[in-house]
Amino acid sequence: MMGLVRDLMSLEGTLRPTRLQMSGEEITVSLPARARPSATGVAAQLAAPRFELSVDSFFGARHFVGSATSPGLPHHHSYRVEASFVSSEPDRHGFVIGFASVRELVESTVMEYSERLLNTAAPFGEIPPTTENLAKVFHEKINVKLRELDQPGVRLKHVRVWESPSNSATYTNFGTNFDAGHGPDFETGFGADASITA
């Protein structure tokens, strides 16, 4: 039950609950007004069976991050980048999307930064090259490339970047409505209050 509550509270955008009320085995969820057009939209999408396909890519790079009082020293990381894609149905050949296709999307994105000082690579001259920002930038770039592949129904779920075997940051962009069936499409929702039984 607590896992379900944690998952609901981690939702972003129009899906983020404004109120959760627990009573026994029932949870009542209140959503913002923009997320209330239908009685089945989000609930159906969250509960719908789906396939998830993930690929990893690895690259090495240096960066420095600091604060107002300390500029930070350049240091190297061996990064691992995971991109996960979801679809409710495979294509007529039984594939969600080919591993080779998504591997190329991910590899071509992360290799732009391989063995570089990230602080000098765009857009990190403008924003700090933290692991969080790497995950967001990679997510945005991979999502653009996915739309160019024209794979209706395939969505980029998240990008996770590890800077060490035990430290990672994940970027997920739920709550954004992308055209042509790419990216999350959770602008529809369920009524002001909906019950989910765990």
Report on the structure:
The chain is an alpha+beta fold and 198 residues long. The chain folds into two domains: 2-48 and 187-197, no CATH class; 51-181, 2-Layer Sandwich (Tetrahydropterin Synthase, Chain A). Helices cover 23% and strands 28% of the residues. The protein contains four helices and seven strands; from the N terminus they run αββαββααβββ. The chain has a four-stranded antiparallel sheet, covered by helices on one side. A three-stranded antiparallel sheet has the order 1-2-7, with no helix packed on it. It is globular, with a radius of gyration of 19 Å. Residues 175-198 have low confidence and may be disordered.
Observed structural traits:
Tetrahydropterin Synthase, Chain A; globular; 198 residues; four-stranded antiparallel β-sheet; 7 strands; alpha+beta; 2 domains; disordered C terminus; 4 helices; three-stranded antiparallel β-sheet
What fraction of the residues are assigned to beta strands by DSSP?
25-35%
Give a quick account of the main beta sheet: strands, pairing sense, barrel closure: 4 strands, antiparallel
**Helix-strand pattern, N to C?**
HEEHEEHHEEE
Shape: globular
Q: Low-confidence parts, pLDDT < 50 over ≥5 residues?
A: 175-198
Report the end-to-end length measured between terminal Cα atoms. 6 Å
CATH class of the largest domain: Alpha Beta
Count of structural domains = 2
> So how many helices?
4
Can you count the beta strands?
7
Radius of gyration: 19 Å
Q: At the fourth CATH level, what is the homologous superfamily of the largest domain?
A: 6-pyruvoyl tetrahydropterin synthase/QueD
Helix content: 10-25%
CATH architectural group of the largest domain: 2-Layer Sandwich
